[in-house]
Design a protein that fits this description.
single chain; 2 domains; alpha+beta; GMP Synthetase, Chain A, domain 3; 3-stranded antiparallel sheet; 210 residues
């Protein structure tokens, strides 16, 4: 685990003392400085890998501390197994990205060789299996950031009209002024699905299916 302190000097020293009492080693500012310098460059590696025929994507979830290890193992195994069923070996990497009093979030990055001509179907198969695994093992499908286009598309397809009507009724009751993530959730079902597919096709630079 890499741990950094951004608090005042006294609190930082107190935190460092606790860490050292548990065997931690002070790495200095180098690691943090490198992260601050390069953190906005790293996401562009995704496009480079895709240009070389590597499927790469990430997903996030969150759960209680008591369930974190179980969810992590199940999710990593599911992604690897589903990829293997298509004859492609996947590399699955996971880290705890955010910690809270009651639980934490898992950020999962996976890579595999693209199934040429079936890239969208390949990605969707892995994403569907991973999402089902998260739900079955007590994780959140929206992580802690809220719900966006891909999750709206997923809910539209999985829940159908009745399920979406129930979610829409709950949102109207709890958020009558539509201030929570406006335009990102409970949009027209067909448009949300199309938006998610268009997003993937644009990023992967793939021809649209007709």
């Amino acid at each position: 685990m890499l741990l950094g302190f951004e608090d005042d000097v006294a609190r930082a020293k107190a935190g460092q003392a606790i860490c050292k009492s548990h065997g931690a080693v002070d790495l200095g500012r180098g690691v943090a400085d490198a992260w601050l310098r390069d953190r906005y460059e790293t996401p562009y590696l995704r496009d480079v890998l895709m240009d070389h025929g590597i499927l790469v994507d990430m997903l996030e979830t969150a759960t209680m501390w008591s369930n974190l290890d179980r969810l992590h193992k199940a999710l990593a195994a599911t992604i690897a197994d589903v990829a293997a069923q298509t004859g492609l070996r996947a590399l699955v990497m996971t880290h705890v990205s955010h910690c809270y009093r009651d639980g934490a979030s898992l950020s999962v990055t996976f890579l595999a060789r693209m199934a040429r001509g079936k890239e969208i179907a390949q990605w969707e198969t892995i994403k569907r299996a991973a999402t089902d695994c998260i739900v079955a093992n007590g994780g959140t499908v929206s992580h802690h950031y809220g719900v966006g286009y891909e999750h709206a598309a997923w809910m539209s397809r999985e829940n159908g009209v009745v399920g979406m009507d129930a979610l829409r009724a709950a949102k109207n009751a709890l958020d009558p002024n539509n201030v929570m993530n406006p335009g990102k959730w409970l949009v027209a079902e067909s448009s949300s699905v199309d938006a998610a597919i268009e997003y993937q096709e644009r990023f992967w630079n793939l021809p649209k299916e007709h």
